[in-house]
Amino acid sequence: MALLGLMWTTWAGFIHALALVTGGKVEAAEFLPHARTWFDHVIAPEVPRIAGQVDRRRHPGDGSALAMQAAAIDHLVEAGRALKVDTELPEYLQDRARQAIERGHADDSFASLFEVLSAPTD
């Protein structure tokens, strides 16, 4: 189930990105090389680091604190609204980031979302 969840949320993020770029009048095929580069050079190299942080339950920010990521997510939500793209997916991230920040993870990495996702509160 975990691999299916990874697949669907990755696809959903990619499809949301396509909604943003096509809303800005860029063809999906034109965006694809940029997405591939992003996956290969930004996303994939971070996966082992994130897994290690989760295993250690320590999420040092190391120059990319959750508070900074949360501000960028705010911009993503704003961009979606401006382009009339559904914003529920980035709003979900925005809410989880805020919860993690409220729990004291503002200076920790994005991986600290694990603490919210694995122990939600009502």
TrEMBL record:
Residues 1-118 form the NADPH-dependent reductive aminase-like C-terminal domain. It comes from the Bacteria. Pfam families: RedAm-like_C. Gene3D superfamilies: N-(1-d-carboxylethyl)-l-norvaline Dehydrogenase, domain 2. This is NADPH-dependent reductive aminase-like C-terminal domain-containing protein.
